[in-house]
Amino acid sequence: MKLKILYFGMISEITDCNEELIAVPDQCKVAQLEIFLKDTYINLQGLSFNIVVDKQISTSDMLLTSANEIALLPPFSGG
Amino acid sequence: MNKRKTVFVEGSISPAFIANSIEKHQTKTSIGAHDIFLGQVRADQIHGKIVQAIEYSAYTEMAENKFHEIRETTFQKFDLTCMHIYHSMGIVKAGEICLFVFVSSPHRKEAFKALEFLVEEIKKEVPIFGKEIFEDETHVWKVNS
């Protein structure tokens, strides 16, 4: 299946895009997606970020579907 | 009850906008205390270079949801008459205002407490990202402490 991933702030510089569709196996969980992304983008390793699913902070065992909107958020710096 | 309000404004927040916002409250005579927080872009020195501006971006939809949740929570926790939050998007130069938080209450103590709570929640919970830009057009990403 394909997942739509949004990238923000310093993460969008590492991925060199603001969003993309990536192919993952069915039944993919947040933890697997994180490993896949860190393998694809080496510079994500050692960086602090949150994976947000449908605008909510996710847990690592959450099952993903192609209907989800997934976002990688670096540390916040508003204000 | 509290309809969704627009928080993001393009560029800096002008002193005239802030003055106008204060003036609009003169008809609300149950208010006895206003408290205002203004966030200003600092010309920090980082590795020998001075910050000229911050360029803000956000996960807009999630940020608006978070602002709404924070507003609702603050209204529940404190006795406020009204509350206004404005945050910049895009470029804000050093010395300019990027965050304007305005609370009004019948009495001062609620206004003081509510304002501190609000500003801390905004910094912690809202997905906004600041890129600190130097004179030579290089940049670093700001992280809230």
Write the layout of secondary structure elements.
The complex is a heterodimer of chains A (about 80) and B (about 140).
Chain A: E1 2-7, H1 9-15, E2 19-23, H2 30-40, E3 50-53, E4 56-57, E5 69-73
Parallel strand pairs in A: 1-5
Antiparallel strand pairs in A: 1-2, 3-4, 3-5
Chain B: E1 8-10, H1 15-23, E2 33-40, E3 45-46, E4 49-58, H2 60-77, E5 82-93, E6 97-105, H3 108-125, E7 128-134, E8 139-141
Parallel strand pairs in B: 1-5
Antiparallel strand pairs in B: 2-6, 3-4, 4-5, 4-7, 5-6, 7-8
Helix pairs in contact in B: 2-3
Task: Report on the biggest sheet of chain A.
Answer: 5 strands, mixed
The overall number of domains of chain A is: 1
Distance between the termini of chain B: 34 Å
Q: Rg of chain B from C-alpha positions?
A: 16 Å
CATH superfamily of chain A: Beta-grasp domain
Characterize the biggest β-sheet of chain B. 8 strands, mixed
CATH class of chain B: Alpha Beta
Instruction: Bin the helical content of chain A.
Output: 10-25%
State the shape of chain A: globular
SSE run of chain A? EHEHEEE
| Count of the separate structural domains of chain B | 1
Low-confidence stretches of chain A: none
Write structural notes for this entry.
The complex is a heterodimer of chains A (79) and B (145). By secondary structure, chain A is of the alpha+beta class. Chain A has one domain: Ubiquitin-like (UB roll) (Roll). In chain A, 23% of the residues lie in helices and 28% in strands. Chain A contains 2 helices and 5 strands; from the N terminus they run E-H-E-H-E-E-E. Chain A has helices at residues 9-15, 30-40, and strands at residues 2-7, 19-23, 50-53, 56-57, 69-73. In chain A, strands 2-1-5-3-4 form a 5-stranded mixed beta sheet. The termini of chain A are far apart. By secondary structure, chain B is of the alpha+beta class. Chain B has a single domain (8-141), classed as Aldehyde Oxidoreductase, domain 3 (Alpha-Beta Complex). Chain B is 31% helix and 37% strand. Chain B contains 3 helices and 8 strands, in the order E-H-E-E-E-H-E-E-H-E-E. Chain B has helices at 15-23, 60-77, 108-125; strands spanning 8-10, 33-40, 45-46, 49-58, 82-93, 97-105, 128-134, 139-141. In chain B, strands 1, 2, 3, 4, 5, 6, 7 and 8 form an 8-stranded mixed beta sheet that branches. In chain B, helix 2 (60-77) packs antiparallel against helix 3. Chain B starts with 7 loop residues before the first strand and ends with a strand. At the A-B interface, loops of A face strand 4, helix 2, helix 3 and strand 7 of B.
